Amino acid sequence: MTKSSTDLIIDPEAEQDIQDILQYTLDTWGDDQVEAYWSVIWDAFQRIRVFPEMGRRRPFPNEREVVLAHHIIVYRHHRNIVTVLRILNPRRRRR
Fold this sequence. Notes:
The chain is of the alpha+beta class. The chain has a single domain (7-90), classed as YaeB-like fold (2-Layer Sandwich). It has helices at residues 12-29, 31-50, and strands at residues 7-10, 56-57, 63-68, 71-78, 81-88. A hairpin with a 5-residue loop joins strand 2 (56-57) and strand 3 (63-68). The radius of gyration is 13 Å and the shape is globular.
């Protein structure tokens, strides 16, 4: 993957989302699936850093979203910073 000079910040709410997702995954499917899904999430973060305009626009300034397997990554891109705001189940799409 192309190297990016864009910084990645993970908002505390997104950090909590990640913890919740990985705990649910652990409880439901075990260690191997936690590692596999974390890899999917992390790879998506890296793609967003390289291609910050890839996500669909949201009705909030500078916000976009990317569908990821069973979740939606909501992020803001401004200048050379991508801030991951939330990682939501599609049923909780609103921030």
